[in-house]
Amino acid sequence: MRSRLELQAIQQLLEAQRRRIRTYSELQRTNLPPGRTPPGLPPVTPSLLPSGQEVLDALPMAALWVAPVFDIDGELQDVLYLTRNAAARAFADSRLPEGSLPRWTGPASLFERFPSLARTAIPRMLTLAFRQGTLQGPETVEWLLHTPSGPMRITDEACVAPCGAHFLLTLKRGDRLRMAAAAQRLVRTCWAEWNLGGHGVEPSRGFHQVLGLTEGVPVPDLFGLATAATSDSLPGLYQMLYDVILRKRTAECELRLQGSGNRVFRMVAEPVRVAPGSLVRALRAVLIDVTADRQRRKAAQRSAREAHREHERAEAVAEIADVLREAVLPHFQDELDAYGLEAAAVYRPDAREAGVGGDWYKARKLPDGRILIALGDARGHGLEAATLMAKLRYALAGLAYTEEPVELLTQWLNEVACADGDESTATAIIARYHPERALLRWTCAGHPRPVLLRDGRAAPLPTPAGGPGLSLGVLPATEYSATETPLEVGDIVLMYSDGLTERRPADPDRDTRRFLEAAERCFEEAAPGLGHAGLQAYIERLVTRLDGPHRTDDATLLALRRIGARGLSVIAPPCP
User: Fold this and answer.
1) Do 21 and 272 contact (CB within 8 A), yes or no?
2) Which of 232, 386, 540, 550 is most buried as measured by Cβ atoms within 10 A of its Cβ?
3) Beta bridge partners of 191
4) CA pair distance 115, 108, nearest whole angstrom
């Protein structure tokens, strides 16, 4: 209903303007000054008629006067080139290099003088003009003219008009028209001028193609354009017509045509007046296909919204990461000193995952007087890895209170990971320190072996009997074996995740050597100072030496240094 009302408003606006133009025309025709009558035409006498050559020379385009030669069957045999006009002579003088054409001496064969014209549409146009007696063209013809500097391509708009027993062949520069049509096609732009006093329309050559109209179908008048527009385009179209016709100013609108596949056109129109300050007699408009621009703008807006959501998500994940790190990863001070150990740790998250990952570590006193030590690396990145990391860490903390050997603790932790799902895999070092014997008892579940730093020399701890065990979560009912490592005062045990040393392509042996060399080099440069702060400073320097832009995973380093027990006598049951 609303669309019909808007169409009626557009129709009434156009009809009112048409009436105003007709009234203005009638007034101009009848309102001659008093005593004035239209001037009469002078009598025409034969002496005033121009010659044929004068008529040719008056034409603004190049014109050739030709006489076709047909055989008895009406087939074109040759074309006699009789004469040319001043525009043709000027074209030859300005465009063609000197010596390109033989000197004109009079009538000659057109196709001998211009051989490539025989392979254009001109022979067919001459034949049809002869048989039908009607104007042929315009048609675009491209032909070559051989010049001293090489072949020259010429593009013309040709017309053939019968004139008695002869024919007038006109050639209008076609390259500009062709370039204009190509420009309209390339930038999806066309233009037209609509006569507001009637229904006449003068469109550009690319009008049908740009708007997706069928070739040969008449260009719609302004009301026809409104009828073809979608309902959401009508308010803007009416406002534009109102501004141009009544307010006499340039205006624009967005136009969508039915059946055009959601294409969007920007229509910019200006008034064409009868005289300065007078009423508007026509509307001249440029139509630009802005569909691609609108699609790019929508895509950019979607990308901006997605980027904003991703930014909000990253901020939320970062907050969660901070909470997880504070809740899961301990901060060591002097709480283990009484048991003959100092502990320090460095954790460097993968920046690409908003500071949260699957690395975890633990070192805490158990009720039996021993110390649980562990370092693990849950598979993957982001919150999923962090969730698995938290599950395993808290599960191990609970299992450790059973006082069972570390082999069994590791086996139980593997069952926890297997029950969590196929993707819940992790590597880990699970250890228990026995203060009364200064003994580290540990298992390996697919993780890099700990490194012992003694008197400045670094070496991996011996592999457990039977080799390193499988990663956690790979296979249920997996058994693990433990290795016992006695520690001397001053010994430093370094446990690390492979994110600290791994490079692409992966080479575990080379990665291990790189870690050992870095540990020894940092020790040579400055041995770890006394106390927790000295140990922390040493591993900070070690991580800085190994870290860099190559890293694609979390990086964790946990250091344990044996010291003499202070202030507390440790009584513990014998080692299992």
Assistant:
1) no
2) 386
3) 286
4) 12
Cα–Cα nearest to 361, from 427, 317, 407: 427
Looking up tokens 């903390």 gives: 397
Q: Where are the alpha helices (DSSP H) in 335-405?
A: 382-399
In terms of Cα–Cα distance, which of 402, 456, 462 is closest to 432? 402
Query: What are the tens digits of pLDDT across the range 500-539?
Result: 888 777 788 899 999 999 999 999 999 999 888 899 999 9
pLDDT digits 0-9 by tens, 71-112: 888 788 889 999 988 988 887 777 777 777 777 778 889 888
Interior/surface letters 533-572, b for 16+ CB within 10 angstroms, e for the rest: eebbebbebbbebbbeeebebbbbbbbbbbbebeeeeeee
State the Cα–Cα distance between residues 389 and 353, nearest whole angstrom.
15
User: From the centroid of its chain, how far is CA 398?
Assistant: 52
> What one-letter code names the amino acid at 223?
F
Q: What's the rounded Cα separation, in Å, for the pair 36 and 337?
A: 124
Contact yes or no for 435/404 (Cβ under 8 A): no
Q: Interior CA angle at 434 toward 433 and 436, to 5°?
A: 150
Please report, for residues 83, 373, 383, 403, 482, the alpha-carbon distance to residue 343 in angstroms, rounded to integers and kept in the order given: 108, 10, 27, 22, 22
The answer to whether 388 touches 379, Cβ cutoff 8 Å, is yes
CA 454 to CA 345: how far, in whole Å? Answer: 19
Predicted TM-score (pTM) of the model is 0.49
Residue among 411, 340, 345 nearest 369 (CA): 340
Give pLDDT tens digits for 107-119: 889 888 888 888 8
Q: What are phi and psi of 109, to 5 degrees?
A: -70, 125
**Helix ranges (DSSP H) in 40-82:** 52-58
Token pair listed for 534:
């000295």
CB 274 within 8 A of CB 258: no
Q: Are 249 and 294 in contact (CB under 8 A)?
A: no
- Look up tokens 């699970």; give the residue: 430
| Angle, alpha carbons 303-257-289 (nearest 5°) | 55
Closest of 440, 434, 438 to residue 369, by C-alpha? 434
SS (H, E, C) 169-190: EEEEECHHHHHHHHHHHHHCEE
Q: How far apart are CA 468 and CA 427, in angstroms?
A: 11
- Rounded Cα distance between 125 and 140, Å, is 12
d(CA 572, CA 543): 35
**Alpha-carbon distances, residue 188 vs 38, 180, 436 (angstroms):** 48, 12, 87
